[in-house]
Every structure is written in C-alpha cells, then in structure tokens.
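User: Hi! I'm working on a homework problem where we have to compare a predicted structure to a textbook description. Could you give me the structure for the chain below?
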Amino acid sequence: MLATLTRLTAVTVADACREHGVTRLVVSGGGAHNPTLMGMLVDELPDVDLTSSDEVGVASDAKEALAFALLGYLTVHGLPGALPSGTGARHASVLGSITPGRQPLRLPAPVDTAPHRLLIAAD
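Assistant: Happy to help. Predicted structure tokens:
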C-alpha cells in the first residue's frame, strides 16, 4: 500500500509540473528525505531540475515553520494570506486572528502593499 501511495504522489506531482511547464522543482518537507519518492520524481520528470530547498538556503524541515511565520506576518499587517489565484477563493482574505493576552494588543499600522519577495538570510 505504501508503494502505491508513493507512486501516486510522484505521478500526481509530475502531472501538475507538466501541466504548468515546470522546469525546476524545489522539494522540501518529509518527502525530500524519501529516496524512493525522490527517485520516482526523477524518473517521472527527466527534463526537470529537481533540487532540495536545502540547496537554495531554506531548510527543508523548516518549511512549515517558515510558512506560518509568513502567514503571521501577513495577518499582523492586515495583508491577505489567501488569494483567489492560489486558493480558488472568491476574494483575497486575511487569515487567522490575533488574540490579545493579558496586556492590551498593540499591532503595527497596516501596510498598503504586500511584500513582493521573501528573503531568508542565514546568520
């Protein structure tokens, strides 16, 4: 059953990559540590540059933490974290809510525009 699910994952990812004309695939998360899955992706996508996010400076095991940090930043600044182009939603939406603790909540003033890029710098 695990072999079938791994194969299904590889084929599903490869189909989406072909549909969107992907030429470089940066892999992160637990799947990046699965040699069987990675081998299947290489076989399915022979013309695609397949690399780990570790190789581009983002720890593959930190993907979820980085994603939540980005979503938190967007929410605190009143910026949408869900866009129709990415989620199929009807409109852009700010995600989550900020709940104050014992002290009054002091948020930064909302910004007018969303960031255009994310730069992750290592110390």
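For your comparison, note the following. The radius of gyration is 18 Å. The CA atoms of residues 25 and 50 lie 5 Å apart. Good luck with the assignment!
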